[in-house]
Amino acid sequence: EVHLVESGGGLVQAGGSLRLSCAASGFTFDDYAIGWFRQAPGKEREGVSCIRSTDGSTEYADSVKGRFTIANDNAKNAVALQMNGLKPEDTAVYYCAFTYGSKWCLFSGDYWGQGTQVTVSS
């Protein structure tokens, strides 16, 4: 089955940077997307960014445009999320998701990782 493992979370001061990684395994498919989602206590899950396998195209939530960048890391069979200019409101558990097809890659996922905590102090 599809297996996803997130890493790279931690504690950082406002304005700092973190790089998250989603290592994916257990599948062979030609049309899928890998997305990052986040959920803060008491808030709904939010799609942050995703990248499509077919053409490498990407999507970003308005709240992170210009600060976050998603990219394939082919050498590691992983997807990275580079987060710059972090703000306290970015504090959340960040989850990696695999989605069959790519049209709705910021809506939800079919398989999920365990999550990694990102905490931004002011």
Topology of helices and strands:
Elements (H helix, E strand, L loop, with lengths): L2 E5 L2 E4 L4 E8 L6 E8 L6 E7 L5 E3 L7 E6 L4 E6 L8 E9 L10 E2 L3 E6 L1
Parallel strand pairs: 2-11
Antiparallel strand pairs: 1-3, 3-8, 4-5, 4-9, 5-6, 7-8, 9-10, 9-11
Explain this structure:
The protein is mainly beta and 122 residues long. Helices cover 0% and strands 52% of the residues. It has strands spanning 3-7, 10-13, 18-25, 32-39, 46-52, 58-60, 68-73, 78-83, 92-100, 111-112, 116-121. Strands 2, 4, 5, 6, 9, 10 and 11 form a seven-stranded mixed β-sheet that branches. A four-stranded antiparallel β-sheet has the order 1-3-8-7, with no helix packed on it. The chain is globular, with a radius of gyration of 13 Å. The relative contact order is 0.33.
Brief write-up:
This protein has strands at residues 3-7, 10-13, 18-25, 32-39, 46-52, 58-60, 68-73, 78-83, 92-100, 111-112, 116-121. With 122 residues, it is mainly β.
Largest sheet: 7 strands, mixed
Strand content: over 45%
Instruction: Tell me the span between the first and last alpha carbons.
Output: 40 Å
Category from helices, strands and their pairing: mainly beta
Q: What is the β-strand count?
A: 11
Run of helices and strands: EEEEEEEEEEE
Count helical runs.
0
Primary descriptors:
mainly beta, 4-stranded antiparallel beta sheet, 122 residues, 0% helix, 11 strands, single chain, 7-stranded mixed beta sheet
